[in-house]
Amino acid sequence: MSELDLWAKYLDLGVRLGRSGEDLSAWVEDKVRKDMERSDRQIERKKKREEMELQKQREEMELQKHRDEMEMQKERCKSGERK
Q1: Distance in angstroms (rounded) separating the CA atoms of residues 13 and 28
Q2: Region labeled Disordered — which residues (predicted)?
Q3: How many angstroms separate the first and last alpha carbons of the chain?
């Protein structure tokens, strides 16, 4: 939801709750600020989760590469070859 949408939502709600004047303005501003901060935190958490997932995938790929290399080396030893 955009900041403008939040302002409209909370202005409407504030008026229906009987707020007016500076009280309404301060209340709406506080609500919008809190919603925007919450949204920013959610975006950061999502970004961090995605970064952690990518790191995990990289580590798994490296581990699989190492396993494959070890398996190839084992096969070479079985067949009598040496590096």
Answers
A1: 9
A2: 38-83
A3: 61
Instruction: Please give the residue range of the domain that contains residue 26.
Output: 3-78
Task: Tell me the pTM.
Answer: 0.62
Closest among 46, 25, 31 to 1, alpha carbons compared = 31
pLDDT 10s digits, 29-71 = 999 999 999 999 999 999 999 999 999 999 999 999 999 999 9
DSSP state of 82: -
Number of H helices, E strands in the chain: 2, 0
Q: Is residue 83 part of a domain?
A: no
Q: How many domains is the chain built from?
A: 1
